[in-house]
Amino acid sequence: MKTLIIGIGGMTNGGKSTLSKALQKRLPNSCIISQDTFFKDDSLVPVDSHGFKQYDLLSALHMDRMMEEVETWQDDPRAFKVSHNGVVQLLSEGVDQVYVLIIEGFLIFNYRPLNELMNKKYFLQIPYETCKQRRSSRVYTPPDPPGYFDGHVWPMYLKNRKEMEEMVTDLVLLDGLTERDKLLSSVLEDVTADIEAFSDRDDGNLPA
Ligand SMILES: Nc1ncnc2c1ncn2[C@@H]1O[C@H](COP(=O)(O)OP(=O)(O)O)[C@@H](O)[C@H]1O
Ligand SMILES: O=C(O)c1ccc[n+]([C@@H]2O[C@H](COP(=O)([O-])O)[C@@H](O)[C@H]2O)c1
């Protein structure tokens, strides 16, 4: 069975889940694993000296559980697909099916074990003002306290981004201000080309 793992990383509110959901709808036999679903319980997240909860760190996430979820997909992508969101689509007879996993989240490329599994890495970026504006209209659980964006989210983004750039060299940067449909079609075109190249090969490896 052939598999492809795509990472959709990026800044908070960069458009990761919007793009991932749209891609999943268009890619047969694809599933999404979202890092957001692995946040630790609020009681386990420490506060800093300014009283801000330290959510924008890898230590605020159950990354071990996220890896287990990815391994469950790797063990049997077909069963994972059936148990998570339904029907497996058979393409044409005689063609090897390629199962696609979309891993999305704001710190996926900062976690080396996850990073190493990905065949393709996309990173959605937006300017500070857009990020702050989009974030202000989103309600998290718990909600952002006053000053949280400038006091915690943005400084941690800068720190995490620097760390990511020291670890990862093969990122494809995407402009999160691009219109949704255009973003989708450019990534879809890229991924579809990989899938086609991949399904033509019989050694199970994605061409470089
Ligand atoms: N390409 C885009 N252009 C304009 N707004 C977008 C775009 N993609 C997403 N958004 C909006 O930005 C906000 C954050 O999007 P979301 O996909 O939830 O971001 P993330 O998963 O990166 O936090 C939402 O209000 C969404 O509708
Ligand atoms: O989902 C949660 O439990 C949660 C609780 C508190 C905060 N968050 C925020 O979720 C952000 C990452 O998710 P996202 O979708 O904005 O990239 C990160 O900036 C955190 O501050 C998320």
Automatic annotation (TrEMBL):
<keyword id="KW-0662">Pyridine nucleotide biosynthesis</keyword>
<dbReference type="GO" id="GO:0019363">
    <property type="term" value="P:pyridine nucleotide biosynthetic process"/>
</dbReference>
<comment type="pathway">
    <text>Cofactor biosynthesis; NAD(+) biosynthesis.</text>
</comment>
<keyword id="KW-0547">Nucleotide-binding</keyword>
<dbReference type="GO" id="GO:0046872">
    <property type="term" value="F:metal ion binding"/>
</dbReference>
<dbReference type="GO" id="GO:0005524">
    <property type="term" value="F:ATP binding"/>
</dbReference>
<dbReference type="GO" id="GO:0019674">
    <property type="term" value="P:NAD+ metabolic process"/>
</dbReference>
<keyword id="KW-0479">Metal-binding</keyword>
<keyword id="KW-0067">ATP-binding</keyword>
<dbReference type="GO" id="GO:0050262">
    <property type="term" value="F:ribosylnicotinamide kinase activity"/>
</dbReference>
<dbReference type="InterPro" id="IPR027417">
    <property type="entry name" value="P-loop_NTPase"/>
</dbReference>
<keyword id="KW-0808">Transferase</keyword>
<keyword id="KW-0460">Magnesium</keyword>
<dbReference type="GO" id="GO:0005829">
    <property type="term" value="C:cytosol"/>
</dbReference>
<keyword id="KW-0418">Kinase</keyword>
<comment type="similarity">
    <text>Belongs to the uridine kinase family. NRK subfamily.</text>
</comment>
<dbReference type="GO" id="GO:0061769">
    <property type="term" value="F:nicotinate riboside kinase activity"/>
</dbReference>
<dbReference type="Pfam" id="PF13238">
    <property type="entry name" value="AAA_18"/>
</dbReference>
<protein>
    <recommendedName>
        <fullName>Nicotinamide riboside kinase 1</fullName>
    </recommendedName>
</protein>
